[in-house]
Amino acid sequence: MTTETVSRRYPTRSPLVGYLLRRLGTSVLLLIGVTIVTFLLTNLVPGDPVSAALGEGAAQNPATREAFIRAHGLDQPLVVQYFIYMGNLLRGDLGVSLVTGRPVTLDLATAVPATIEIAVCAIVVSLAVSVVLGTLAAYRRGLVTDQVVRVVTLVGLSVPTFWLALVSYYFFFLQLGVAPGSGRISPSITPPPRITGFYTVDYLLNGDGVGFFDAASHLALPVMVLSLVTIGLLTRFVRTSVLEVLDSDYVRAARAKGLPGTRIVLDYVLRGAALPILTVVGVAFGALLSGTVLVESVFAWPGLGTYAYNAAANLDLTGIMGVGLVVGVIYLVINLVVDLLYGVLDPRVRIA
User: Fold this and answer.
1) Which residues are 103's β-sheet partners?
2) In this structure, what CATH number is given to the domain that contains residue 153?
3) What is the pLDDT of residues 255-266, one digit of tens each?
4) Which residues are in the ABC transmembrane type-1 domain (predicted)?
5) What total number of domains does the chain contain?
6) Quick check: 314 and 102 in contact, CB under 8 A?
7) In this structure, is residue 194 part of a structural domain?
8) What domain range includes position 187?
9) Within-domain flag for 94
10) How does pLDDT run across 305-319, given as a tens digit for each residue?
11) Residues 92-106: pLDDT tens digits?
């Protein structure tokens, strides 16, 4: 039996599939680690969760306090509490928030889409602008255009996010009146029937043009603030990555063949610089999803950052653990997607 016949009868597994399976296994182990770290750090937070849950008056009653402790398993060893937590987690039960009085799962189902909506818009705008500016600066290396782009990105990296959010809100809303107020929609607009949790998408799916434009206008300022900060980071990294590719042999060969400049940029330069850029985009997107507390506070955006702040301020341990778990899962998913794209773009990664 020839080798060709054996390979035809017993087809080998695709390297990309094997690469993906390895990354999925690693992600599962990391997820377990995230639950352990989140649980331990939350339980190490100083303060009395019983008093925070019952209030100072009820917590002073020994019978009430003892009943609460037994009901929530707080009298069990920490290891037993963790396994109770994991058992509830596997059933989709993250507990009840002490702030809202609702299941944490329902609170996060409302807060997470609100944050994802502005984060996705911000990363798309940032990536589109950064690729153009970074590539232009690399091609104009050392010239006036390059210097201007580098100064602008340095300013974007140096300006505090909360200050930029406050100035934008004051200038565009209070002074010029060209931007709407805070929140996801105007008070006179009815929220859309929930389909995806993203107001702009849900309005479009329901054919509500008025609601869509109102939700989009409320997105504009938060997205602009987050984009300006992210553009500074991505542009400088795109410039560095493109500069490295411009000095490669295959780009020189493409120029020697007389290929059009646009094709060289799209097919050779940007494709060669895609892998390191992809890594930074993943990190920036994760930071946008988990670090928008100040921006959401300024614009009264009911997202994950606002929910995390309220949970921490009120010692809501179930809410804190829920947010920590969601943030951990967000980073794991982003890293998994980036690794998968690495395997698709670069065949050498699949056999690493």
Assistant:
1) 96
2) 1.10.3720.10
3) 787 777 777 777
4) 112-342
5) 1
6) no
7) yes
8) 107-315
9) no
10) 888 888 877 777 788
11) 888 778 777 788 888
